[in-house]
Amino acid sequence: MTVSSNDENSEMVVTPWEVKGKVDYERLIREFGTQPLTKELLNRIESHTGSLHLQLQRHIFFSHRDLDTVVDLYEKGTKFVLYTGRGPSGPVHIGHLVPWIFTLHIQKKFNTRLYFQLTDDEKFLIDDEATLEQTRHYAYENALDLIALGFKPNDTFIIYDVEDIDMLYSTALEVAKHVTYSTARASFGFQDSTNIGWVFWPALQAAPCFIHAKLTGENVPALIPAAIDQDPYWRVTRDVAQKLGYYKPAQIHCRFLPGLGAGGKMSASMPETSIFTKDPPDLVKRKIWNAFTGGKGTATEQRKTGADPTICSIFQYYFYLFEDDDKKLLEREHKCKSGAMLCGECKTDIVFRLNKFLEEHRKRREKAKDTIEQYHVKR
Amino acid sequence: MTVSSNDENSEMVVTPWEVKGKVDYERLIREFGTQPLTKELLNRIESHTGSLHLQLQRHIFFSHRDLDTVVDLYEKGTKFVLYTGRGPSGPVHIGHLVPWIFTLHIQKKFNTRLYFQLTDDEKFLIDDEATLEQTRHYAYENALDLIALGFKPNDTFIIYDVEDIDMLYSTALEVAKHVTYSTARASFGFQDSTNIGWVFWPALQAAPCFIHAKLTGENVPALIPAAIDQDPYWRVTRDVAQKLGYYKPAQIHCRFLPGLGAGGKMSASMPETSIFTKDPPDLVKRKIWNAFTGGKGTATEQRKTGADPTICSIFQYYFYLFEDDDKKLLEREHKCKSGAMLCGECKTDIVFRLNKFLEEHRKRREKAKDTIEQYHVKR
Questions:
Q1: Is some CB atom of chain B closer than 8 A to the CB atom of A169?
Q2: Which of B180, B196, B200 is the closest to A193 by Cβ?
Q3: B280-300 burial by CB neighbour count: b if 16+ within 10 A, else e?
Q4: Is the C-alpha dihedral spanning A41, A330, A353, A142 positive or negative?
Q5: Which of A173, A201, A379 best tests the B interface by mutation, with the highest count of B CBs <10 A?
Q6: B130 vs A22 pLDDT, higher one
C-alpha cells in the first residue's frame, strides 16, 4: 500500500519513490497502520537516554512499529541494532541528515551497532537515465556525508549494495522466496512495465534487517529510523521475518524536512528547493532568499499584521535543525507573528547558521575520505 | 513463450522447468522460431573440427540460433566462448552428460573457454522444499561430474551463483533493467503467485553470456550448447544483448535423452527412470531391466515378429552415448527388428557398458575433489 490521493488543497503522494503535496502525518499513521509515539513510550526512551532528543520532543519522529517491543527486549537484556540507509541518486541535502543525526543519538545512547545501506542498485534500476557508475559514485559521496556527522567506525557498518552483494544475496533470496509478485505489486504499485530488477529489489532492502545474525550469530531485532515513505518495505519484511526465524524489524518514522518551495519534502530532483551539503555559501544565500515564507507582500503590511510561520519553509529549518533552544524558537515565532521580525532578518540568520554548519560539515566530510574504508562493513 | 499443448497421443510440455510427453522436435523448431542445423552448416563445422561429432551426425544437436554467425566471426578471426550450466536440484544423471560431452568436444576443437553456471539460487527459488544448503551442496556435487568428463581447469571456469554473485550482479542488473515484468511473464509464464526472486532470476542466467567481456575486456559472442527447454532464457537475453553493446548469445540445441519409462526426458524427479552417475551396478541393472522397450509380450512372439527399436528407451542409450560405431548400431537395430536379438541380450549389453562407463566416471569424479578449486571462475 502506498498513499496517494487528492486532498482538498493539494495532492498528497507518499511512496518510497515519490513524496509530494502537503503531507498529512495523522492520516499516514491511520492509512499505513503504524503507531503514534505516545508520551508513555517517549518517557521510557528518556529513562534510557537521560533526556529526550530534540527530534522526539518536537515530534519530528512521530510514529513507529514495535519500538515498544524493542524497548521491552532491551530492558530484559536483548540488545538491538540500528539499520538505515540512503538511495544514492545524487548529492545529500540537509533533509537527509535529519534522521541520520537522530540515528547517531540513539547509537550513542544505546551503545549499539548501525548498518547503513547505500542502495546503488536500486537507484540504478528505478531511474532510466542512471548508470551504475553514477549511483556507485554517489554511494561513496553520500557515505562521506554520513561519516561527517560523527559516526565511529567500530560500530558503523556501511553496506554498498553492488560491492557487498555477496553478503546480502543469500538473505535476499530467502526473503524473495516468501514474497509473491502479487504481494509486491500491492505493496509497491508495480506494473507490467516495471523492470524485473526493481520487482526483486525489495528483498535486497530487507536483507540488512537480518545481517547482524548472519555476521555475528546474534539474533537481535533491528530498529530502523527513517522517513515514513519507506514503510511499505518494512511491512513486507515484517511478514517474512518470522517465517525465517528472525525478529520483525521495528521502525521509528520521521517527517520530511519541507523543501524551500511551497509544500512537499526536499527533493534532489528540484535542486533549487534543497540545500545540498556541497552548496557554496553564495548559492545557499540565493536559495534561502528565494525560499517560500509566510511573509506578506510588503514590509509595511508585514510590520502591521505579522507573518505566518506555520507555512514558512525557513521556520521549519529552525524547527528541524537550527534552533535547539525551545525558548528562542518560541521567541522567533512570536516576533514573526507580531511583525516585529521580518523575513529578511530571519533569512540572514539562517544563511549564517547554515553556512557555518556546512563549512564545518565539509571539513569533516573531507577528513572522512581518509577513514571511509574503516566504515566498510566488516566480514 | 513456452510450448505446452495436447497432441493426439500425449501432452508435450517443454519449459525451462518441465519437460514431459512425447517431444516433437520439428514442432519446437517451428514454435520456438529456431533454425535447423543444415547440412551446409554441419559441413562448415566439420571443416574446423576434422570430423563431425557423433551428436551432430545423429542430429542429437538439431537446432540453433546464430551458430552460422559465430562460425562467420570465427573464420574472420573473432573467437567465441562457450557457456552452459546446470540447475543443481539433485544428482547428475546420464542425460545431463550428453550436452556436456558435446561441449567438451567443441571446447577442444576450437580451443576456447567454457563458462559453466551452477544455478544454486534458481533451484532454491523455484522449489518450495529446497534449502540453499541443499542446492549449494548439489552445485559442488554436480561440478565433480562435469570435471570427471575431462574438462581442463585452465579454460573451464565454473560459476556458483550464490558464491560468485559479486561477479554476476552488476551485469544482471544491467540486463534486468531492460526486461519488463510483462516480457518476463510472457516468456516464462510467471503468475501472480510467482515469487519475486524467480521473477528476477532470468537476469542471472543471462549474466554469464557477457562475463567474458567483463573479466577480460574481450567482447566475443557466447555459444550455448544446451537442451532446447532453456531457449526462452536466450530469447530474452538476445533482445537485451545489443542494447548493452554485446553480441547476441548463440545457441545450439540438443534433444533430451529419453527416460527409461515411456516418453519424456530423464527426470531427477522420477529416479527410477534415470541412471544417476552415483547409481551402484546392481541398481543400474535393476533400472535397465525394468525399462520400457519395444519388445513383445513373449520371447516366442518376439523371435517371430521382431521388436520396435524406435520406441525403445534402451536403444536410445546406444544411440545417444553407448554405440559410437554406426555400423554396429545399424546391426543392432536390424537384429532387434528381425527378432534375432531379444531385449534381454540388449539389456545385458547396456548394463555392462553403463557400469563400465560409470565405474570410470566415478574414479575421475573422485579425483576431481582434489582439483575442483582450480576450476572455480578466476577473477
A1: yes
A2: B180
A3: eeeebbebbeebbbbbbeeee
A4: positive
A5: A173
A6: B130
Q: How far is CA A366 from CA A333, A369, B276, in A?
A: 36, 6, 61
> What distance in Å separates the CA atoms of residue B324 and residue B315, rounded to the nearest whole number?
13
Residue B266 confidence (pLDDT)? 56
Residue showing cell 540565493: A286
Contacts of A282 (CB under 8 A, 6+ apart): none
Look-up of cell digits 524547527: A319
Residues A158/A146, Cβ–Cβ less than 8 Å: yes
What CA–CA distances, in Å, run from A232 to A15, B12, B103?
A: 8, 42, 47
Q: pLDDT tens digits, residue range B263-313? A: 645 566 678 899 999 999 999 999 999 999 999 999 999 999 999 999 999
Beta strands in chain A (DSSP E): 3-6, 11-15, 18-20, 35-36, 61-65, 81-86, 114-118, 156-160, 222-227, 250-254
**Spatial distance between the Cα atoms of A356 and B181, rounded to a whole number of angstroms:** 48
| DSSP string for B140-157 | HHHHHHHHHTT--GGGEE
- ipTM of the shown complex: 0.92
Res. B14 pLDDT band, cuts 50 70 90? confident
Distance separating alpha carbons of residues B62 and B56, to the nearest angstrom = 7
Under DSSP, is residue A84 helix (H, G, I), strand (E, B) or coil?
strand
- The SS3 assignment for A291 reads coil
Q: Residue type at A142?
A: N
Structure confidence at residue A244 (pLDDT): 96
Contact list in A for residue B121 (CB cut-off 8 A) is: 169, 173
Instruction: State the pairing for strand pair A114-118/A81-86.
Output: parallel
Read off the C-alpha cell for B229: 527447454
Length of chain B: 379
Burial class (CB in 10 A: 0-12, 13-18, 19+), A46: middle
Using an 8 Å CB-CB cutoff, list chain A residues near B200.
176, 196-197, 199-200
Task: Check: pTM over 0.90? Answer yes or no.
Answer: yes
